[in-house]
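User: My advisor, Dr. K., asked me to get a structural model of this assembly before our group meeting. I'm new to this, so sorry if the format is off. These are the inputs:
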Amino acid sequence: DAGVIQSPRHEVTEMGQEVTLRCKPISGHNSLFWYRQTMMRGLELLIYFNNNVPIDDSGMPEDRFSAKMPNASFSTLKIQPSEPRDSAVYFCASSYGTGGEYFGPGTRLTVT
Amino acid sequence: GIQVEQSPPDLILQEGANSTLRCNFSDSVNNLQWFHQNPWGQLINLFYIPSGTKQNGRLSATTVATERYSLLYISSSQTTDSGVYFCAVRNSGNTPLVFGKGTRLSVIA
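Assistant: The format is fine. Below is the predicted structure of the whole assembly, which you can bring to the meeting.
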Protein backbone atom coordinates (compact mmCIF):
# COMPACT_ATOMS: atom_id res chain seq x y z
CA ASP A 1 0.00 0.00 0.00
CA ALA A 2 1.21 3.51 -0.75
CA GLY A 3 0.23 4.82 2.66
CA VAL A 4 -1.62 8.07 3.21
CA ILE A 5 -1.00 10.46 0.36
CA GLN A 6 -1.13 14.23 0.75
CA SER A 7 -0.75 17.00 -1.76
CA PRO A 8 0.78 19.40 -2.21
CA ARG A 9 3.81 18.75 0.00
CA HIS A 10 4.62 22.44 0.17
CA GLU A 11 2.40 25.43 -0.42
CA VAL A 12 3.36 29.09 -0.31
CA THR A 13 0.58 31.56 -0.79
CA GLU A 14 -0.27 35.16 -0.11
CA MET A 15 -2.60 36.30 2.60
CA GLY A 16 -6.21 36.30 1.42
CA GLN A 17 -5.81 33.50 -1.09
CA GLU A 18 -7.73 30.24 -0.96
CA VAL A 19 -5.74 27.13 -0.07
CA THR A 20 -6.87 23.56 -0.68
CA LEU A 21 -5.06 20.62 0.85
CA ARG A 22 -5.76 17.10 -0.35
CA CYS A 23 -5.60 13.69 1.24
CA LYS A 24 -6.01 10.13 0.03
CA PRO A 25 -6.34 7.71 2.97
CA ILE A 26 -5.11 4.15 3.01
CA SER A 27 -7.48 1.94 1.05
CA GLY A 28 -9.98 0.21 3.34
CA HIS A 29 -9.57 2.64 6.21
CA ASN A 30 -12.84 4.12 7.41
CA SER A 31 -11.65 6.98 9.61
CA LEU A 32 -9.80 10.08 8.45
CA PHE A 33 -8.24 12.77 10.59
CA TRP A 34 -6.86 16.24 9.83
CA TYR A 35 -4.22 17.65 12.20
CA ARG A 36 -2.22 20.86 12.31
CA GLN A 37 1.22 21.17 13.87
CA THR A 38 3.00 24.37 14.91
CA MET A 39 5.90 25.05 17.22
CA MET A 40 3.70 27.03 19.57
CA ARG A 41 0.70 24.73 19.80
CA GLY A 42 2.09 21.33 18.93
CA LEU A 43 -0.13 18.78 17.19
CA GLU A 44 -3.83 19.71 17.14
CA LEU A 45 -6.75 17.70 15.81
CA LEU A 46 -8.86 19.82 13.48
CA ILE A 47 -11.60 17.44 12.33
CA TYR A 48 -12.24 13.76 11.82
CA PHE A 49 -14.54 11.65 9.67
CA ASN A 50 -15.94 8.17 10.16
CA ASN A 51 -17.29 6.48 7.02
CA ASN A 52 -17.03 9.83 5.19
CA VAL A 53 -19.21 11.62 7.76
CA PRO A 54 -17.73 14.49 9.80
CA ILE A 55 -17.95 13.50 13.45
CA ASP A 56 -16.18 16.25 15.35
CA ASP A 57 -15.04 19.56 13.89
CA SER A 58 -14.60 21.36 17.20
CA GLY A 59 -10.89 21.71 16.49
CA MET A 60 -11.45 23.75 13.34
CA PRO A 61 -10.18 27.17 14.38
CA GLU A 62 -12.54 29.41 12.44
CA ASP A 63 -15.18 29.50 9.75
CA ARG A 64 -12.38 30.15 7.29
CA PHE A 65 -11.57 26.44 7.58
CA SER A 66 -13.73 23.77 5.99
CA ALA A 67 -13.23 20.07 5.25
CA LYS A 68 -15.02 17.60 3.05
CA MET A 69 -14.87 13.90 2.37
CA PRO A 70 -16.95 13.23 -0.75
CA ASN A 71 -15.95 9.56 -0.86
CA ALA A 72 -13.89 6.98 1.02
CA SER A 73 -10.73 7.72 -0.91
CA PHE A 74 -10.50 11.50 -0.87
CA SER A 75 -10.70 14.44 1.51
CA THR A 76 -9.95 18.14 1.27
CA LEU A 77 -9.17 20.82 3.82
CA LYS A 78 -9.82 24.32 2.57
CA ILE A 79 -8.78 27.65 4.06
CA GLN A 80 -10.48 30.73 2.63
CA PRO A 81 -9.21 33.37 3.05
CA SER A 82 -5.80 32.32 4.33
CA GLU A 83 -3.89 34.33 6.95
CA PRO A 84 -0.22 34.27 8.04
CA ARG A 85 -1.17 32.61 11.35
CA ASP A 86 -2.42 29.61 9.37
CA SER A 87 1.18 28.77 8.49
CA ALA A 88 1.81 25.27 9.81
CA VAL A 89 2.27 21.67 8.78
CA TYR A 90 -1.06 20.01 8.08
CA PHE A 91 -1.22 16.23 8.48
CA CYS A 92 -3.84 13.80 7.33
CA ALA A 93 -4.11 10.38 8.99
CA SER A 94 -6.36 7.37 8.54
CA SER A 95 -7.29 4.27 10.49
CA TYR A 96 -9.61 1.28 10.40
CA GLY A 97 -11.86 0.62 13.38
CA THR A 98 -9.91 0.76 16.61
CA GLY A 99 -6.66 0.03 14.83
CA GLY A 100 -3.63 2.25 14.50
CA GLU A 101 -3.56 5.67 12.88
CA TYR A 102 -1.21 6.16 9.96
CA PHE A 103 -0.02 9.62 9.03
CA GLY A 104 0.69 11.14 5.66
CA PRO A 105 3.87 13.13 4.98
CA GLY A 106 2.16 16.44 5.69
CA THR A 107 1.69 19.67 3.77
CA ARG A 108 3.90 22.56 4.85
CA LEU A 109 1.83 25.72 4.38
CA THR A 110 3.37 29.17 4.42
CA VAL A 111 1.09 32.19 4.16
CA THR A 112 2.92 35.47 3.55
CA GLY B 1 -10.76 13.69 28.63
CA ILE B 2 -7.85 11.33 28.87
CA GLN B 3 -4.49 12.85 29.79
CA VAL B 4 -1.15 11.69 28.40
CA GLU B 5 2.15 12.58 30.02
CA GLN B 6 5.53 11.77 28.57
CA SER B 7 8.90 11.86 30.23
CA PRO B 8 11.53 13.05 29.98
CA PRO B 9 10.69 16.05 27.82
CA ASP B 10 14.23 16.21 26.48
CA LEU B 11 17.02 13.65 26.30
CA ILE B 12 20.56 13.85 24.98
CA LEU B 13 22.44 10.61 24.38
CA GLN B 14 25.85 9.60 23.20
CA GLU B 15 25.69 7.32 20.18
CA GLY B 16 25.54 3.70 21.34
CA ALA B 17 23.73 4.43 24.60
CA ASN B 18 20.40 2.93 25.62
CA SER B 19 17.33 4.88 26.75
CA THR B 20 13.84 4.43 28.10
CA LEU B 21 10.99 6.80 27.34
CA ARG B 22 7.86 6.73 29.45
CA CYS B 23 4.22 7.45 28.73
CA ASN B 24 1.60 7.66 31.48
CA PHE B 25 -2.10 7.91 30.73
CA SER B 26 -5.06 8.65 32.93
CA ASP B 27 -7.73 6.19 31.76
CA SER B 28 -8.16 2.80 30.14
CA VAL B 29 -7.22 2.65 26.47
CA ASN B 30 -8.07 0.54 23.45
CA ASN B 31 -5.18 1.88 21.42
CA LEU B 32 -1.71 3.14 22.22
CA GLN B 33 0.80 4.11 19.58
CA TRP B 34 4.38 5.32 19.61
CA PHE B 35 5.46 7.64 16.81
CA HIS B 36 8.82 9.05 15.81
CA GLN B 37 8.84 12.47 14.19
CA ASN B 38 12.14 12.73 12.37
CA PRO B 39 14.00 15.99 11.77
CA TRP B 40 12.26 16.29 8.39
CA GLY B 41 8.89 16.34 10.13
CA GLN B 42 7.58 12.95 9.09
CA LEU B 43 5.52 11.08 11.69
CA ILE B 44 6.55 7.46 11.58
CA ASN B 45 4.39 4.81 13.22
CA LEU B 46 6.68 2.77 15.49
CA PHE B 47 4.33 0.57 17.47
CA TYR B 48 0.65 -0.13 17.88
CA ILE B 49 0.68 -1.51 21.41
CA PRO B 50 -2.44 -1.20 23.60
CA SER B 51 -0.98 -3.95 25.80
CA GLY B 52 1.94 -6.34 25.97
CA THR B 53 5.43 -6.13 24.51
CA LYS B 54 6.67 -5.76 20.96
CA GLN B 55 10.11 -5.50 19.43
CA ASN B 56 11.32 -4.13 16.14
CA GLY B 57 15.07 -4.19 15.72
CA ARG B 58 16.72 -1.91 18.28
CA LEU B 59 13.36 -0.62 19.47
CA SER B 60 10.92 -2.31 21.78
CA ALA B 61 7.84 -1.20 23.66
CA THR B 62 5.88 -2.45 26.62
CA THR B 63 2.43 -1.32 27.71
CA VAL B 64 1.06 -2.25 31.13
CA ALA B 65 -2.55 -1.30 30.59
CA THR B 66 -3.66 -2.10 34.14
CA GLU B 67 -1.10 0.37 35.49
CA ARG B 68 -1.66 2.90 32.71
CA TYR B 69 1.82 3.32 31.36
CA SER B 70 3.93 2.41 28.39
CA LEU B 71 7.69 2.34 27.90
CA LEU B 72 9.69 2.71 24.71
CA TYR B 73 13.21 1.28 24.78
CA ILE B 74 15.88 2.36 22.37
CA SER B 75 19.05 0.31 22.43
CA SER B 76 22.41 1.15 20.85
CA SER B 77 21.11 4.54 19.81
CA GLN B 78 22.18 6.05 16.48
CA THR B 79 22.16 9.63 15.27
CA THR B 80 19.25 8.73 12.99
CA ASP B 81 17.17 8.06 16.11
CA SER B 82 17.12 11.80 16.81
CA GLY B 83 13.77 13.53 16.70
CA VAL B 84 10.63 13.68 18.79
CA TYR B 85 8.93 10.58 20.13
CA PHE B 86 5.20 10.83 20.70
CA CYS B 87 2.94 8.56 22.65
CA ALA B 88 -0.75 8.69 21.67
CA VAL B 89 -3.75 6.89 23.10
CA ARG B 90 -7.40 6.27 22.37
CA ASN B 91 -9.84 5.24 25.06
CA SER B 92 -13.07 4.53 23.23
CA GLY B 93 -14.36 3.34 19.89
CA ASN B 94 -12.60 4.82 16.91
CA THR B 95 -12.27 8.33 18.29
CA PRO B 96 -9.11 10.31 17.57
CA LEU B 97 -5.83 9.70 19.31
CA VAL B 98 -4.81 11.95 22.18
CA PHE B 99 -1.13 12.85 21.95
CA GLY B 100 1.43 13.53 24.65
CA LYS B 101 3.77 16.49 24.28
CA GLY B 102 6.60 14.24 23.17
CA THR B 103 10.18 13.49 24.18
CA ARG B 104 12.81 15.29 22.12
CA LEU B 105 15.79 12.97 21.66
CA SER B 106 19.17 14.11 20.40
CA VAL B 107 21.78 11.46 19.73
CA ILE B 108 25.27 12.84 19.30
CA ALA B 109 28.19 11.08 17.66
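One thing worth pointing out at the meeting: The interface with chain A takes residues 30-31, 33, 35, 41-43, 45, 48, 86, 88, 90, 93-97, 99, 101-102 of chain B (CB under 8 Å).

User: Perfect, thanks a lot.
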